[in-house]
């Protein structure tokens, strides 16, 4: 008698892959994996109780987001940590984001203005640090920070360019989660306030200059800690 081995249906496999992806993404962003740590499909499959195919699908998705690297003949790993990497990310952000901000200021409507105000209000009212997070930025502030920066650029109306921002933001945020500590000499609240004011005043030159300086300071701070 031939024994039939059941396999997950395609929708079930996709659901499992989504679950593994979400769990791995959260673990990497929380710093549970150190820079350059190996992400071994066999070990992860055993840990999550799923097939290798499910794990590989999740890992490929993480590679696409910049949260994992595919190593030649060596599987997958968390991205390496280096000042050179953060300088590259910073250069890419300084090249792209001011352009998107100019486009948003030109194209953004009244709804965009309201969304920017709301996003900045949330950011300004969210504690940057909490006792449980110690020296690191709080989860709530990190999300409010992302939403504010993305909302500023959403007025551009170009989803392809916004996808590029999303990928660069994830890479930059990973650096922040690993490296960012309190910096009493930097007034991030004022930087974000001036950025909001310039954008809503429809002043593209000033807004782009403020954003470029904001990104430059962030890159320098992260690279300095890894230099």
UniProtKB/TrEMBL annotation:
What is the name listed in the Swiss-Prot or TrEMBL entry for this protein?
Answer: GntR family transcriptional regulator
In terms of InterPro entries, this protein maps to: GntR_C, TF_FadR/GntR_C, Tscrpt_reg_HTH_GntR, WH-like_DNA-bd_sf, WH_DNA-bd_sf
The residue ranges of the HTH gntR-type domain are: 14-81
Q: Recite the UniProt keywords alphabetically.
A: DNA-binding, Transcription, Transcription regulation
* Coiled coil region boundaries: none
Q: Where are the transmembrane segments?
A: none
Identify one Pfam family in the record: FCD
Q: Does the keyword Cytoplasm apply?
A: no
Superkingdom classification of source: Bacteria
A molecular function (GO) term: DNA binding
Q: Which Gene3D superfamilies match?
A: GntR ligand-binding domain-like, Winged helix-like DNA-binding domain superfamily/Winged helix DNA-binding domain
Q: Does the keyword Nucleotide-binding apply?
A: no
Matching entries from PROSITE patterns are given as: HTH_GNTR
């Amino acid at each position: 008698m031939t024994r039939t081995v059941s396999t997950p249906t395609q929708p079930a496999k996709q659901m499992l892959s989504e679950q593994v992806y979400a769990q791995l993404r959260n673990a990497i962003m929380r710093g549970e994996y150190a820079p350059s740590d190996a992400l071994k499909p066999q070990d992860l499959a055993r840990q999550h109780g799923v097939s290798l195919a499910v794990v590989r699908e999740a890992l490929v998705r993480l590679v696409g987001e910049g949260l994992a690297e595919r190593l030649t003949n060596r599987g997958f790993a968390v991205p390496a940590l280096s000042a050179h990497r953060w300088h590259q990310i910073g250069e890419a952000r300084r090249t792209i984001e001011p352009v998107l901000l100019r486009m948003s200021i030109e194209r953004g409507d009244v709804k965009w203005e309201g969304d920017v105000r709301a996003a900045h209000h949330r950011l300004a009212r969210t504690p940057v640090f909490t006792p449980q997070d110690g020296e690191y930025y709080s989860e709530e502030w990190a999300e409010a920070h992302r939403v504010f920066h993305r909302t500023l650029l959403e007025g551009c109306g170009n989803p392809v360019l916004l996808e590029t921002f999303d990928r660069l933001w994830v890479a930059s945020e990973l650096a922040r989660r690993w490296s960012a500590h309190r910096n009493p000499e930097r007034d991030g609240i004022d930087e974000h306030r001036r950025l909001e004011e310039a954008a809503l005043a429809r002043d593209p030159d000033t807004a782009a200059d403020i954003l470029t300086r904001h990104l430059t300071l962030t890159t320098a701070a992260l690279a300095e800690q890894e230099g």
